Amino acid sequence: MIYTNGGVEQEALQKLVFKTYPLPDDEWQAFAACWHPVNYKRRTVITAAGEVERYLYFVLEGVQRAYYLGEGHKEVTLIFSYTGSFSGIADSFQLQRPSRYYLETLTASRFLRMTYSDFAQLIDKHPAISRWAHLATAQAMSGLMDRYIEIATYSAEEKFRVLLTRSPHVLQLIPHKYLASYLGLDPTTFSKLMASVKL
To answer: Boundaries of each Cyclic nucleotide-binding domain copy (predicted)?
Structure first.
C-alpha cells in the first residue's frame, strides 16, 4: 500500500466527478480529503461474494472485472472498470448488504478509495455531494438498462459492434474470454466475430 498527496491523481478524480456535477470548492475539498491510495496485484479478489463492499474505488491504473459465479462454477462477467473510471460492487456499497458478485483485478491496479462511512457522512453533510451521488447512481442505472436491452435483444454481431464502437480499446486491455463472457457469447463465436467484423 502506497500513500501519496493527490496531485495529478486527484485532478483525474475531480474531472470525472465534475463531469457529472461540479462541486463547490469547500465540498470538493471535503470530498477529495476522503480518498486514499491503495495498490493490488494482478488477479486479486478485492471483494468476494458474501462480503459487504466497504469501499468506492477510483481507478488510477489497471483493469478490473465484476463477475458472478453460477451453477457449476461458471463465471459470468458483468462489468469492467479501468483507468479513469469508478469501481467497486455498487449495490453492496450503497446498501451495505452482502455482495452477490466478485470484484477482481485482471492486471496490477492502483486506486484511490473511499470508505462507506466517509461516503455516508459526506452525503449527510454536503448537499452538492448528495446531488452528485444521486446523479451518478442514475447514470449508472441508465447504463445498466442499456446493457440489459443489448443482452436481451441484440444479435451476437450487434453486441460485438456495440462493444467495438463504444470501447474499442478493451480488445487490447482485456482477455477475450472475459469479453466473450461479458457479451454472453461463447469464445468460438467471439473469435469468429473478431475475424469477420470490421468498423
So the answer is: 17-138
**Cα–Cα distance measured from residue 131 to residue 66, given in angstroms and rounded to the nearest whole number:** 26
Contact 83, 59 (CB under 8 A): yes
Q: What's the CA angle centered on 57, arms 161 and 178, to 5 degrees?
A: 35
- Spatial CB neighbours of 151, under 8 Å, sequence gap ≥ 6: 159, 184
Cα–Cα distance measured from residue 59 to residue 12, given in angstroms and rounded to the nearest whole number: 10
Whole-angstrom distance, CA of residue 188 vs CA of residue 199: 20
pLDDT digits (tens, 9 = 90+) for 37-94: 999 999 999 999 999 999 999 999 999 999 999 888 889 999 999 999 999 999 999 9
- In the chain, where are the structural domains located? 8-118
